[in-house]
Amino acid sequence: MMSLCEMAVDVLTTADGRRKTAKSRAHAARWFAARASGEEIPLGRAAAPLRPARPEAPQLLDPREVPKRKPGSPQGRIALLHAVAHIELNAVDLHWDIIPRFAETPMPAGFYDDWVKAADEESKHFNLMCDCLEELGSYYGALPAHAGMWRAAEDTVDDFMGRLAVVPMVLEARGLDVTPGMIAIFRKAGMDSAVAALETIYAEEVSHVAYGSKWFHFLCGRHDTDPKSVFHELVRKYFKGALKPPFNEEKRAEAGLPPDFYWPLADQTPNRSR
Ligand SMILES: [Fe+2]
Ligand SMILES: [Fe+2]
After folding, report:
1. Ligand 1 center–CA 235 separation, angstroms
2. Which domains does the chain have, with CATH numbers?
3. Which ligand has its closest atom nearest to the C-alpha of 206?
4. Crossing angle of the two packed helices 173-188 and 74-101, in degrees rounded to 10
Protein backbone atom coordinates (compact mmCIF):
# COMPACT_ATOMS: atom_id res chain seq x y z
CA MET A 1 0.00 0.00 0.00
CA MET A 2 1.26 3.47 -0.87
CA SER A 3 1.77 5.86 2.02
CA LEU A 4 0.19 9.32 1.84
CA CYS A 5 3.58 10.90 1.12
CA GLU A 6 4.16 8.44 -1.73
CA MET A 7 0.74 9.32 -3.18
CA ALA A 8 1.68 13.00 -3.03
CA VAL A 9 4.97 12.43 -4.83
CA ASP A 10 3.17 10.29 -7.43
CA VAL A 11 0.97 13.32 -8.25
CA LEU A 12 3.86 15.80 -8.15
CA THR A 13 5.97 13.75 -10.58
CA THR A 14 3.16 13.32 -13.15
CA ALA A 15 3.47 15.96 -15.87
CA ASP A 16 0.24 15.84 -17.89
CA GLY A 17 -2.55 17.91 -16.30
CA ARG A 18 -5.42 15.48 -16.85
CA ARG A 19 -3.28 12.53 -15.73
CA LYS A 20 -2.03 14.45 -12.70
CA THR A 21 -5.57 15.32 -11.61
CA ALA A 22 -6.83 11.77 -12.26
CA LYS A 23 -4.13 10.42 -9.93
CA SER A 24 -4.87 13.14 -7.41
CA ARG A 25 -8.57 12.30 -7.33
CA ALA A 26 -7.94 8.53 -7.13
CA HIS A 27 -5.48 8.95 -4.24
CA ALA A 28 -7.89 11.26 -2.42
CA ALA A 29 -10.70 8.71 -2.83
CA ARG A 30 -8.38 6.00 -1.45
CA TRP A 31 -7.47 8.18 1.55
CA PHE A 32 -11.09 8.95 2.43
CA ALA A 33 -12.27 5.35 1.90
CA ALA A 34 -9.56 4.22 4.32
CA ARG A 35 -10.48 6.92 6.84
CA ALA A 36 -14.15 5.88 6.67
CA SER A 37 -13.41 2.18 7.16
CA GLY A 38 -11.02 2.79 10.06
CA GLU A 39 -8.15 1.26 8.09
CA GLU A 40 -5.07 3.44 8.25
CA ILE A 41 -2.95 4.71 5.37
CA PRO A 42 0.41 5.60 6.90
CA LEU A 43 1.79 9.10 6.40
CA GLY A 44 5.19 7.63 5.51
CA ARG A 45 7.99 9.68 4.02
CA ALA A 46 8.93 10.50 0.43
CA ALA A 47 11.13 13.14 -1.16
CA ALA A 48 9.07 15.84 -2.85
CA PRO A 49 10.74 17.30 -5.95
CA LEU A 50 11.71 20.98 -5.62
CA ARG A 51 9.51 21.64 -8.67
CA PRO A 52 6.61 19.46 -9.79
CA ALA A 53 6.55 17.83 -13.23
CA ARG A 54 4.60 19.91 -15.75
CA PRO A 55 3.49 19.37 -19.35
CA GLU A 56 5.59 20.79 -22.21
CA ALA A 57 2.78 23.23 -23.02
CA PRO A 58 1.85 25.83 -21.89
CA GLN A 59 5.03 27.73 -22.42
CA LEU A 60 5.83 29.57 -19.18
CA LEU A 61 6.59 33.27 -19.56
CA ASP A 62 7.49 36.11 -17.27
CA PRO A 63 4.18 37.72 -16.22
CA ARG A 64 5.15 40.92 -18.08
CA GLU A 65 5.50 38.97 -21.33
CA VAL A 66 2.12 37.22 -21.17
CA PRO A 67 -0.02 39.00 -23.77
CA LYS A 68 -3.00 40.85 -22.33
CA ARG A 69 -6.37 40.36 -24.01
CA LYS A 70 -9.59 42.28 -23.46
CA PRO A 71 -11.87 40.23 -21.20
CA GLY A 72 -14.89 41.37 -23.24
CA SER A 73 -13.75 39.48 -26.35
CA PRO A 74 -14.08 35.72 -26.99
CA GLN A 75 -10.26 35.47 -27.08
CA GLY A 76 -10.10 37.35 -23.80
CA ARG A 77 -12.52 34.91 -22.17
CA ILE A 78 -10.43 31.96 -23.38
CA ALA A 79 -7.31 33.65 -21.95
CA LEU A 80 -9.06 34.15 -18.61
CA LEU A 81 -10.16 30.50 -18.38
CA HIS A 82 -6.66 29.43 -19.40
CA ALA A 83 -5.12 31.55 -16.64
CA VAL A 84 -7.50 30.04 -14.07
CA ALA A 85 -6.72 26.50 -15.31
CA HIS A 86 -3.02 27.25 -14.78
CA ILE A 87 -3.67 28.53 -11.25
CA GLU A 88 -5.71 25.39 -10.45
CA LEU A 89 -2.97 23.06 -11.72
CA ASN A 90 -0.48 24.87 -9.50
CA ALA A 91 -2.93 24.57 -6.63
CA VAL A 92 -3.11 20.77 -7.09
CA ASP A 93 0.65 20.55 -6.74
CA LEU A 94 0.78 23.06 -3.88
CA HIS A 95 -1.68 21.02 -1.82
CA TRP A 96 0.11 17.71 -2.37
CA ASP A 97 3.55 19.28 -1.87
CA ILE A 98 2.88 20.39 1.70
CA ILE A 99 2.29 16.79 2.87
CA PRO A 100 5.71 15.20 2.19
CA ARG A 101 7.53 18.55 2.52
CA PHE A 102 6.58 19.03 6.16
CA ALA A 103 5.96 15.40 7.18
CA GLU A 104 8.46 15.76 10.05
CA THR A 105 6.11 18.18 11.83
CA PRO A 106 3.59 16.01 13.70
CA MET A 107 0.04 17.03 12.79
CA PRO A 108 -3.40 15.62 13.72
CA ALA A 109 -5.02 13.41 11.08
CA GLY A 110 -7.57 16.15 10.43
CA PHE A 111 -4.83 18.28 8.89
CA TYR A 112 -4.22 15.63 6.22
CA ASP A 113 -7.97 15.25 5.67
CA ASP A 114 -8.21 18.96 4.91
CA TRP A 115 -5.23 19.03 2.57
CA VAL A 116 -6.27 15.90 0.66
CA LYS A 117 -9.82 17.23 0.30
CA ALA A 118 -8.54 20.58 -1.00
CA ALA A 119 -6.16 18.80 -3.42
CA ASP A 120 -9.09 16.77 -4.71
CA GLU A 121 -11.15 19.94 -5.21
CA GLU A 122 -8.29 21.73 -7.01
CA SER A 123 -8.12 18.73 -9.34
CA LYS A 124 -11.83 19.05 -10.03
CA HIS A 125 -11.36 22.80 -10.66
CA PHE A 126 -8.59 22.20 -13.20
CA ASN A 127 -10.76 19.68 -15.04
CA LEU A 128 -13.73 22.07 -15.02
CA MET A 129 -11.59 24.82 -16.56
CA CYS A 130 -10.24 22.40 -19.18
CA ASP A 131 -13.80 21.35 -20.05
CA CYS A 132 -14.79 25.02 -20.51
CA LEU A 133 -11.74 25.68 -22.70
CA GLU A 134 -12.51 22.63 -24.83
CA GLU A 135 -16.12 23.74 -25.20
CA LEU A 136 -14.71 26.95 -26.73
CA GLY A 137 -12.42 25.03 -29.09
CA SER A 138 -9.29 25.63 -27.03
CA TYR A 139 -7.37 23.61 -24.45
CA TYR A 140 -4.94 23.98 -21.55
CA GLY A 141 -1.53 24.52 -23.17
CA ALA A 142 -2.86 26.51 -26.14
CA LEU A 143 -1.67 29.82 -24.65
CA PRO A 144 1.41 30.85 -22.68
CA ALA A 145 1.05 30.98 -18.90
CA HIS A 146 2.71 32.76 -16.01
CA ALA A 147 6.05 31.43 -14.88
CA GLY A 148 6.84 31.89 -11.23
CA MET A 149 3.63 30.52 -9.76
CA TRP A 150 5.72 27.95 -7.94
CA ARG A 151 7.82 30.73 -6.44
CA ALA A 152 5.82 30.84 -3.19
CA ALA A 153 6.45 27.11 -2.71
CA GLU A 154 10.20 27.45 -3.26
CA ASP A 155 10.48 30.48 -0.99
CA THR A 156 8.78 28.59 1.85
CA VAL A 157 10.37 25.21 1.18
CA ASP A 158 11.62 24.97 4.77
CA ASP A 159 9.04 27.09 6.58
CA PHE A 160 5.73 25.34 7.24
CA MET A 161 4.05 28.35 8.83
CA GLY A 162 5.39 30.61 6.09
CA ARG A 163 3.81 28.25 3.54
CA LEU A 164 0.44 28.39 5.31
CA ALA A 165 0.61 32.18 5.61
CA VAL A 166 1.47 32.81 1.95
CA VAL A 167 -0.36 30.08 0.03
CA PRO A 168 -3.84 29.61 1.52
CA MET A 169 -4.05 32.83 3.56
CA VAL A 170 -2.70 35.25 0.91
CA LEU A 171 -2.84 33.66 -2.56
CA GLU A 172 -6.01 31.60 -2.20
CA ALA A 173 -7.67 34.45 -0.27
CA ARG A 174 -6.94 36.69 -3.26
CA GLY A 175 -9.00 34.27 -5.33
CA LEU A 176 -12.01 35.10 -3.14
CA ASP A 177 -11.52 38.79 -3.98
CA VAL A 178 -11.36 38.39 -7.77
CA THR A 179 -13.67 35.46 -8.61
CA PRO A 180 -17.00 37.35 -8.38
CA GLY A 181 -15.75 39.75 -11.10
CA MET A 182 -14.85 36.82 -13.34
CA ILE A 183 -18.25 35.21 -12.80
CA ALA A 184 -19.84 38.49 -13.91
CA ILE A 185 -17.82 38.49 -17.15
CA PHE A 186 -19.03 35.01 -18.12
CA ARG A 187 -22.58 35.72 -17.03
CA LYS A 188 -22.63 38.76 -19.29
CA ALA A 189 -21.34 36.59 -22.15
CA GLY A 190 -24.11 34.04 -21.49
CA MET A 191 -21.62 31.24 -20.85
CA ASP A 192 -23.58 29.14 -18.37
CA SER A 193 -21.07 26.31 -18.01
CA ALA A 194 -18.23 28.71 -17.17
CA VAL A 195 -20.49 30.52 -14.67
CA ALA A 196 -21.38 27.21 -13.00
CA ALA A 197 -17.74 26.07 -12.92
CA LEU A 198 -16.52 29.35 -11.42
CA GLU A 199 -19.32 29.30 -8.85
CA THR A 200 -18.19 25.82 -7.75
CA ILE A 201 -14.61 27.09 -7.49
CA TYR A 202 -15.70 30.18 -5.55
CA ALA A 203 -17.71 28.16 -3.03
CA GLU A 204 -14.97 25.57 -2.45
CA GLU A 205 -12.10 28.06 -2.19
CA VAL A 206 -13.63 29.53 0.99
CA SER A 207 -12.88 26.26 2.77
CA HIS A 208 -9.30 26.16 1.45
CA VAL A 209 -8.59 29.55 3.00
CA ALA A 210 -10.33 28.37 6.16
CA TYR A 211 -8.11 25.26 6.35
CA GLY A 212 -5.06 27.50 6.06
CA SER A 213 -6.28 29.80 8.81
CA LYS A 214 -7.32 26.90 11.04
CA TRP A 215 -3.93 25.12 10.93
CA PHE A 216 -1.94 28.34 11.05
CA HIS A 217 -3.74 29.21 14.29
CA PHE A 218 -3.21 25.66 15.52
CA LEU A 219 0.56 25.94 15.05
CA CYS A 220 0.65 29.38 16.67
CA GLY A 221 -1.18 27.88 19.62
CA ARG A 222 1.31 25.03 19.81
CA HIS A 223 4.15 27.57 20.00
CA ASP A 224 2.18 30.01 22.17
CA THR A 225 2.71 32.87 19.70
CA ASP A 226 0.35 35.64 18.58
CA PRO A 227 -1.18 34.59 15.22
CA LYS A 228 -1.67 38.09 13.88
CA SER A 229 1.88 39.31 14.44
CA VAL A 230 3.40 36.01 13.23
CA PHE A 231 1.23 36.24 10.10
CA HIS A 232 2.37 39.80 9.38
CA GLU A 233 6.01 38.87 9.89
CA LEU A 234 5.84 35.83 7.58
CA VAL A 235 3.91 37.55 4.80
CA ARG A 236 6.38 40.47 4.84
CA LYS A 237 9.23 37.97 4.68
CA TYR A 238 7.95 35.75 1.87
CA PHE A 239 5.42 37.73 -0.14
CA LYS A 240 6.87 40.46 -2.30
CA GLY A 241 4.70 43.54 -2.45
CA ALA A 242 1.55 44.69 -0.71
CA LEU A 243 -1.85 42.98 -0.69
CA LYS A 244 -4.23 44.54 -3.13
CA PRO A 245 -7.64 45.87 -2.09
CA PRO A 246 -10.58 45.75 -2.56
CA PHE A 247 -10.90 42.70 -0.32
CA ASN A 248 -13.87 40.36 -0.14
CA GLU A 249 -14.33 41.02 3.55
CA GLU A 250 -17.42 38.84 3.86
CA LYS A 251 -15.88 35.68 2.38
CA ARG A 252 -12.57 36.31 4.12
CA ALA A 253 -14.44 36.50 7.42
CA GLU A 254 -16.24 33.26 6.59
CA ALA A 255 -12.80 31.69 6.02
CA GLY A 256 -11.44 32.85 9.37
CA LEU A 257 -9.42 35.81 8.08
CA PRO A 258 -10.31 38.93 10.09
CA PRO A 259 -9.56 42.43 8.70
CA ASP A 260 -6.70 43.09 11.13
CA PHE A 261 -4.80 40.24 9.45
CA TYR A 262 -4.78 41.68 5.94
CA TRP A 263 -5.44 45.44 6.09
CA PRO A 264 -2.07 46.27 7.71
CA LEU A 265 -0.38 44.51 4.74
CA ALA A 266 -2.44 46.29 2.09
CA ASP A 267 -1.35 48.83 -0.44
CA GLN A 268 -3.52 51.77 0.59
CA THR A 269 -2.01 54.30 -1.80
CA PRO A 270 -4.65 55.27 -4.34
CA ASN A 271 -3.92 54.65 -8.06
CA ARG A 272 -0.65 52.88 -7.53
CA SER A 273 -0.33 49.55 -9.24
CA ARG A 274 2.15 47.06 -7.87
FE1 LIG B 1 -9.18 25.89 -6.87
FE1 LIG C 1 -7.88 26.34 -3.44
Report:
1. 21
2. 4-47+69-265 (1.20.1260)
3. 2
4. 160
